[in-house]
Amino acid sequence: MSITALDDTHPQAAPPKVSYEETAHCFHCGDANLAGDTFKVRFDGRTRYLCCAGCAAVAQTIVDAGLGDFYRLREQGVQDGGSAPKSLRPAQLVPDELKELARYDLPAVQDQVTRSHDGLKETDLILEGLTCAACAWLVEHAVARIPGVHGAEVNYTTGRASVTWDKSKTSLADILFAIRRVGLEAHPADAQSGAAARKRERRKRLLEFLVAGLGMMQVMMFAVPIYIAEPGDLPQDFENLMRWASLFLLTPVVLYSARSFFANAWRDLKHLRIGMDVPIALAIAVTFLASVHATIQESGEVYYDSVGMFVFLLLGSRYLEFAARSRAAEAIERLAPPLPALVERLPRHPTSSHAESVPVAALAAGDVIRVKTGATVPGDGVILQGMSALDESLLTGESRPVPRKTGDRVVGGSINTVSPLLVRLEEVGDNATLAQISRLARRAAGARPRAALISDRVAGAFAAAVLILAGLTVLYWYPSGGDAWFRHAVAVLVVTCPCALALAIPTAITAAGHRLSRLGLLAARGSALESLARVTDVVFDKTGTLTEPRPTVKRVAVLGDAAAEECLAAAVALEAGSAHPIAHALISYAATLDVAAAKADVISTTSGLGVEARIGGIRYRLGSATFAGAIVLKPLPLKTPAHGLGESHIYLAREGAWLARFDVQAPLRASAAAATEKLRDLGLELHLLSGDLPDAVMSVASVVGIDKAAAQTTPQAKLAYVQQLQSQGRHVLMIGDGINDAPVLAASDASIAIADGRSGSDLARAQAALVMLSSDLNRIPDAIDIARKARRVMRQNLGWAIAYNALFVPLAMLGILTPWVAALGMSVSSLLVVGNAARLARMPRFGITRNEPEETPWNPSIS
Amino acid sequence: MESLYLLIPLSVIAAFAAGWVLWRAVDGGQFDDLEGPAHRILMDDDSPGCATRAGFDPHQKPDPGDR
Question: For residues A569 and A858, which has the higher predicted lDDT (pLDDT)?
């Protein structure tokens, strides 16, 4: 293969003059081509220009391999009106992008995303679209070539890059821009996030595991000769030497690798409860100390190999569990808003209207800010000037914007939908409503009914049984004299080694978690699966959960003599420039029908009621029936139909005549009905809690067949509802997406936050046990099914572990158990348990759609 | 058989040496990214252009399944 891009001797050299248009965009990726005519490729008799060496190589390969149809089909698809993939849209203007990225260079933002040492800055970047190793390489080199960058390292496994740079020579915006130029998106990870801690934890656990493995293997080398030697074959000296060697090898395993078991067991005992780590720590300590005793005394049995293997297997399963959890945590962090939010502050109000851009983090109470249309209000405050409608749906769940005028209070987190407002902030940060809801959520999380998890229940019973049995053994053997009582009691403690028991649960959880992640559900909490399996009631939020987060136009009813297209053109003209969700619905509806807006002027908005404007000199009104009717002075020609399914009716009128009615509705998610049906089939009781108006809630409830529905609920009321269910002994699964759902998500036994790229707030995600990246609600019954299967496997595993113990303990009590039988029995039982759990990851099931999670989902919900 | 008196302590020392090597490797971040380096070696070059000439094969993509 030859690369034209770099081959100066290519016969088809480019013509000397190249027009701007041909080089403006990369032939392969469609992004802005800043390389001019540096990279080129011959295709279909023309020279095509590319933005970088990577694209040039790929394009040349595609053309050389005779796959040029890819480009022909792609261009055709675009001309046919097919939606062009994202990468084909012409890139935004470069200066705009730079301006956007420059936000990262503001000091308040820098403190959040960078670490400083030795005069250098260090930042972790999350890379979007890192799909192959070539991309990783490109990013590394693109960044390293910037003067002032001291080091750039891409971790391909985690999709993150770590960059060190000199503040005086370059800026974060330059680095991000360089990455964007090679076709990837990057945004800095929050320096406070868990990434660094996870990396340390990962290294620590890995080393513990490797040390245990090394010790285990060497000790096994010394144990096998002793097992297979005929009596008399092995001189006592050698045996003693091997025992001492084993002791040396295993000391770091017990003191270093296994120290977390001891620490956890101690913590459990201090809180007067028995977790799984208590019997584990007991088994390790007793077995090891008994072996040390036997080694020093030069008589008795040693169980070093059992200890080594035990620690090794347990650490292995815990490492896998940890790896799965941190992968989920990483995926959730990727959902964070990619740009820091900026606000316009008016420092010298009211003497001057000079505005400066500051990051939200830098705001203080008393600041006067301008909230642009479509922007989020950064804190609680009072409107000084202006009139608008605010979408408070993130906080209350109510989907219709609420009118607000000068003197009214606004709540942080609501979105300004109609016209700019001047707001004096009264509470920001911790005191704002948003933060209060977040505190309510944290408190609720603390009060979450601590599920008596299977493993803990079993562990308690197990530890008690083992101690009782050991006591009985002592009582039985003590009268026979000598040290038999000690040897046999130790044998009991060794053989009841809770290895299989300790592996039974985590292996099943890891395997099932893997299955869930393939469904687009990430388990953020370790106990998520166990609680999901026990769920008896499912509580849905409405807006953004059962319904799509944005309304659409469902129907246009013509009321006068104008055609539907004409009405739509007028309506779009009136709504032009408004960020109101209904305006959004009308505009996108018109776009699908290819209706262009008429020309309107003198647009004025009456908050909460509608818009008025002149088109061709005639007054038009769009809004509620009374508002629009005020210029008609005639009754409506059609009877108003009942509001169906969360509909809003918007009327269009001109002076003296009704024109049309638009029925706007946030549609149900396509999968809602099927998913609720499946959930009922699983024997679950369904509830619907919404902050929306009763009409809207009831109609949705009736369509999906939920009879227990409550409307206009506040976050507190939702919380109370769920807690009441819990007090009746029900186990509640909450499914929601908004900030107002966060307290309930935190308090429920199990919770799923939807973050499919169109809905979902950070706070909800932070409080949920599971985060769903897909918008297909059918994944929820699938997940419950997997959780129940996992519970079954856990029970099988526990059953097996107990059966194994029931078989071996009597042997040990009777004193007919040798160390090699103990070691063998333990390994076989552990392997059986792991094998059984591995079935979970592969278990076929009808109805489960094994799609990958849809396109990289991130959503700047409160930016 | 007497050699065992030497060999067994030696094996213990060797095991500890291996442990130290592991510690160095983990601490140096060699296990942080287990996929990238395998691909990086194919493109180990200083100028971006030459690397593509040196045999970058776009068909050879890593399995994205386990990420």
Answer: A569
Residues A375, A379, A380, A383: is their CA dihedral positive or negative? negative
Are A572 and A620 a contacting pair, CB within 8 Å?
Answer: no
Contact between chains at B34 and A222 (C-beta distance less than 8 A): no
Helices A277-297, A454-477: inter-axial angle, 10-degree rounding: 30
Q: Does A9 touch chain B (CB under 8 A)?
A: no
Token representation of residue A287: 């077995």
Measured between CB atoms, does A618 come within 8 Å of chain B?
no
Q: Give the pLDDT score at A337.
A: 57
| Beta-bridge partner residues of A415 | A376, A391
Task: Enumerate residues 77 to 106 of chain A having a beta carbon within 8 A of any beta carbon in chain B.
Answer: none
Contacts of B39 in chain A (CB under 8 A): 132-134, 136-137, 156
**CB contacts < 8 A (A, B):** 111
Q: Rounded to an integer, what distance in angstroms lies between the CA atom of residue A213 and that of residue A312?
A: 6
8 Å CB contact of B39 and A235: no
The ipTM assigned to this model is 0.70
Distance (Å, rounded) from C-alpha A254 to C-alpha A15? 73
The reply to whether B10 touches chain A by the CB within 8 Å rule is no
Distance from CA of B3 to the nearest CA of A (A): 11
The label of the residue with tokens 């003059």 reads A17
CB atoms within 10 A of CB A739: 27
Rounded to whole angstroms, how far apart are CA atoms A242 and A250? 12
A636 CB burial (10 A radius; 0-12, 13-18, 19+): middle
**pTM of structure:** 0.65
CA distance A430 to A440: 12
Give first-to-last CA distance, chain B, whole Å.
51
Best mutation site among B7, B24, B26 for testing chain A: the one with the most A CBs within 10 Å? B26
Residues 6+ apart with CB under 8 A from A35: A49, A50, A51, A52
- Smallest Cα distance from B46 to chain A, Å: 8
Highest mean pLDDT (candidates A72-76, A139-143, A189-193, A431-435) = A139-143
Residues near A30 by beta carbon (within 8 Å), at least 6 away in sequence: A84, A87, A88, A89, A90, A91
Say yes or no for a CB contact (<8 Å) between B61 and A132: yes
- From chain B, pick out residues whose CB is under 8 angstroms from the CB of A323: none
Q: Which letter does DSSP use for residue A729 in this model? A: T
pLDDT at A757 over 80: no
Do A14 and A66 meet the contact criterion of CB atoms below 8 Å apart?
no
**From CA A531, how far away is CA A746, in angstroms rounded?**
13
- B34 to chain A, closest Cα gap in Å: 7
**Burial tier of A43 (Cβ tally within 10 Å: 0-12, 13-18, 19+):** middle
Looking at A734-778, list the stretches that DSSP marks H as alpha helix, in order from N- to C-terminal side. Answer: 742-747, 762-767
Q: Cα separation of A346 and A368, whole Å?
A: 6
- Tokens standing for A135? 């991309």
Sign of CA dihedral A735, A737, A740, A746: positive
Are the Cβ atoms of A53 and B52 closer than 8 angstroms? yes
Greater pLDDT, B64 or A832? A832
Is A757 exposed, middle or buried (CB count within 10 Å of its CB: 0-12, 13-18, 19+)? middle
CA atoms B39, B41, B47, B49: torsion sign: negative
Q: Which two tokens stand for residue A180?
A: 């964007």
Give the active site residues of A. 541
Pick from A133, A203, A222: which is nearest to B62 by CB? A133
Per-chain mean pLDDT for chain A: 77
Q: Which two tokens stand for residue A639?
A: 């009877």
Distances (CA, A) of A395 to A162, A413, A761: 36, 7, 10
